[in-house]
Amino acid sequence: MATQQAAAPAAKKASKGTSSIGIKDAIWVIVVCAIIAFCNFFFNFGQASNFEGGDPDGGSPLNIWGTIFKGGVIVPVIHTLLLTVLCMCIERVIALSKCIGKEKLATFVGKIKKDIKAKDFDAALRDCDKQGGSVANVVRAAVMAYKEADATTGIKKEVKMARIQQAHEEAIAVEMPTLTMNLPIIATIVTLGTLTGLLGTVVGMIKSFQALAQGGGGDSVELSAGISEALINTAFGIGTSWLAVVGYNFFTNRIDKIAFALDEIGYSIAQTYAATHTDEA
Description:
This protein has helices at about 1-15, 25-45, 65-70, 75-100, 105-115, 120-130, 135-150, 155-180, 185-215, 220-275. With about 280 residues, it is mainly alpha-helical. Helix 1 packs across helix 7 (about 135-150) and helix 7 runs parallel beside helix 10 (about 220-275).
C-alpha cells in the first residue's frame, strides 16, 4: 500500500501533461463516411448517363460506375466500411506519430539510455521535455520516481526499485489507451467487410436464380443485374477486409515496438538504481 502511494505522484506528474491524441467519438466518423458513401452511390454511380436509355433500374450499365451501382444497396454499406478504415488508418498514423514525439523512437531511446548510463537524469528529463508525447511521458515518470527514491532515506533499496518500476508501469497504463485507441474498430471491420460482401453475394445470387426461374431462360437483364450485384459486393468486401487486415497488423506491430522500447528503458532505470545504490536498512 505504501509503495502504491509513493509511486502515484510520479504517475500523476507524467499524466498531467498527457492529452488524449486521436478521435474519441469515432461514431461520428462512421456517420460521415456513411453519408458520403450513400450520396456517392445514388447521385454519382446512379446517374442516368451511366445506363442504357437513361434507366438506372432497367438499363444495362455503360461504364464501371453503372456496374458498381448494379451491386445494390449493400455497395454503399461496404463503401462506408472502406472509408472508415481509410480514415482510422490516417488517424492512427497521425496519433502514433504524435505519441512518439518529435524525434524517431530509436533516436530518443538511444539518448535516454545514454543519459541513464551516465547517471545524468536531469539530462534525461530535458530530453523528455524536448521529445514530447506519450513515450516521453512514460520515461519522465520513471526518471522522476528514480530521483524521488534517490532523495528518500530510511527505506530498503528493493522497495525503492519497486516504486520506480510501479511508477513506470502506471505511466504505461495511463498512456497505452492513447496508442490503441480506435484499433478495435479496424479489427471489427476485418471481419465485417468480408461478411457484408458475402451478404451482398448471396442477395445477388438469389436475384440471379429468380431470373432463371422466370420463363425457363429468364430475363437477361435481371440475370446480369443479379450476377453484377454478387460480384461487385464480393470484390469490395474482400478489398475492404484486406485493407483493414494490413492496417491493423501494421499498427499493432508499431505499438508492440513502442511497448518494448518503454519496457527496455524502465528496466534500464531500475537496474541502474540497483547497481549504484546500497541497501540503507
